[in-house]
């Protein structure tokens, strides 16, 4: 039995052609090389053209070819792509395998890989359908490790949709499943605790978030997973910052910074540098804070990280505003606005800072318009906590000028929206 690639190579050599000569007007020489080494599968059009150039009928190329070997080759190639993170490239190969099942290949594994590829390429509806199909089979087979993997991924999927309560539901089920397994992977359990911490922080349940982060930390420390420990410390720092416990926030930010510097993780180090600098500003060290964030902005720029540069610019604008430097805050905010994607969490913050600048200048109508625009961005992104904070800022302004009618109208809008959000996340008040 030959593979298709072996058959094409044999006929090419008999014909006395090089790979370059065979490829001419058909495809690249590199593609011919990949086909002959069974690392690529030619389309029907290419296969027909190759047969024509080799002066053989198409059937001659396929006679005695082990098509199961071709199928296994495709499977191995798809698995290699998934392992390498080439999810978009793996999807058509995995779909082909799903559409033409063979007994030699574990179909459930292929379906799971395809679902995971959909998840990582943001094709969330396709991912959800595929994961539920795998889950049904896993439950029928009582395959608990596979059920655990699917629940973990469903949690990620709902987190991407900003449906944090549903993410919590899936991750808690995954954690319960993991703890029932005799050989439960400590690293996976730590990841689930970490994820639950992030989700509870998004829901505004800060004390619960800290408890989950601490569980993750104790497990990661036992495994010496420094990258993950650093990320958990970063989460703890941000959570304590939101709780206005600045000393604890600074403590965990310093720990995270030390880890990422030791790992030579430039991006994470710079992110922590910005977070720590913001904390410095809030405890009265604004001048040092500005310097550190400006350094980070320049580093992100040199690395070509436009989005990270934009986020750092927003934080720099907040510090300038804290110092009363309205012109500097406005200038940096405009830079951030140009760097960030149009629909982005920090575009909401750009408008929120612009709004505060205008209110400081006494341009109340423009300031309120900007704050409302910020709230609209947060609402569109499903960031209920940021939306609520921004709306409350608008309410506080109306109360300060004794405009009680608009203040109560907005409070009622906030109450109704909060109820909608809770209901959409499976919480009934």
Main features:
429 residues, HTH cro/C1-type domain-containing protein, TPR-like_helical_dom_sf, elongated, cytoplasm, Cro/C1-type_HTH, mainly alpha, TPR repeat, 79% helix, 434 Repressor (Amino-terminal Domain)
N- to C-terminal separation?
Answer: 67 Å
> What CATH first level of the domain at 1-65 would be assigned?
Mainly Alpha
What's the architecture of the domain at 1-65 in CATH terms? Orthogonal Bundle
Mean pLDDT: 88
Total helices: the number is: 23
**Unreliable stretches, pLDDT < 50, 5 or more residues?**
none
What would you report as the Rg, rounded to the nearest angstrom? 28 Å
Q: CATH fold name of the domain at 1-65, please?
A: 434 Repressor (Amino-terminal Domain)
CATH-wise, what's the superfamily of the domain at 1-65?
A: lambda repressor-like DNA-binding domains
Q: Assign the structural class, choosing from mainly alpha, mainly beta, alpha/beta, alpha+beta, or little secondary structure.
A: mainly alpha
Q: How would you sum up the major sheet?
A: none
Number of strands: 0
Relative strand content? under 5%
Tertiary shape: elongated
Q: Give the H and E element order.
A: HHHHHHHHHHHHHHHHHHHHHHH
């Amino acid at each position: 039995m030959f593979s298709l690639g072996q058959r094409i190579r044999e006929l090419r050599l008999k014909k006395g052609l090089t790979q370059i000569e065979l490829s001419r007007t058909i495809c690249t020489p590199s593609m011919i090389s990949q086909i002959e080494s069974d690392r690529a599968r030619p389309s029907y059009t290419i296969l027909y053209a190759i047969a024509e150039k080799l002066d053989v009928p198409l059937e001659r190329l396929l006679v005695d070819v082990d098509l199961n070997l071709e199928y296994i080759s495709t499977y191995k190639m798809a698995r290699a792509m998934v392992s390498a993170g080439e999810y978009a490239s793996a999807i058509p190969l995995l779909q082909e395998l799903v559409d033409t099942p063979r007994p030699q290949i574990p179909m459930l594994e292929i379906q799971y890989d395809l679902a995971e590829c959909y998840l990582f390429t943001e094709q969330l509806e396709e991912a959800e359908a595929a994961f539920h199909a795998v889950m049904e089979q896993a439950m029928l087979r009582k395959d608990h490790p596979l059920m655990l993997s699917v629940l973990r991924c469903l949690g990620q999927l709902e987190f991407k949709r900003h449906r944090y309560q549903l993410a919590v539901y899936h991750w808690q089920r995954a954690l319960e499943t993991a703890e029932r397994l005799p050989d439960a992977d400590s690293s996976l359990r730590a990841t689930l605790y970490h994820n639950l911490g992030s989700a509870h922080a998004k829901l505004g349940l800060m004390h619960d978030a800290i408890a989950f982060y601490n569980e993750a930390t104790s497990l990661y420390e036992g495994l010496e997973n420094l990258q993950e420990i650093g990320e958990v410390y970063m989460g703890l720092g941000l959570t304590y910052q939101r709780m206005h416990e600045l000393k604890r926030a600074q403590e965990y930010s310093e720990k995270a910074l030390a880890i990422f510097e030791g790992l030579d993780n430039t991006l994470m180090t710079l992110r922590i540098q910005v977070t720590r600098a913001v904390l410095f500003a809030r405890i009265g060290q604004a001048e040092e804070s500005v310097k550190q964030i400006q350094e980070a902005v320049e580093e992100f720029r040199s690395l070509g990280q436009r989005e990270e540069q934009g986020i750092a610019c927003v934080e720099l604008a907040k510090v300038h505003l804290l110092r009363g430097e309205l012109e500097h805050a406005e200038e940096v905010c405009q830079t951030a606005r140009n760097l960030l994607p149009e629909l982005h969490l920090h575009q909401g913050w750009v408008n929120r800072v612009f709004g505060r600048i205008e209110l400081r200048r006494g341009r109340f109508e423009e300031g309120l318009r900007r704050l409302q625009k910020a709230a609209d961005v947060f609402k569109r992104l499903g960031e209920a906590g940021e939306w609520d904070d921004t709306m409350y800022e608008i309410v506080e302004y109306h109360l300060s000028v004794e405009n009680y009618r608009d203040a109560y109208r907005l409070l009622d809008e906030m109450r109704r929206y909060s109820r909608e959000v809770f209901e959409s996340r499976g919480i009934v008040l």
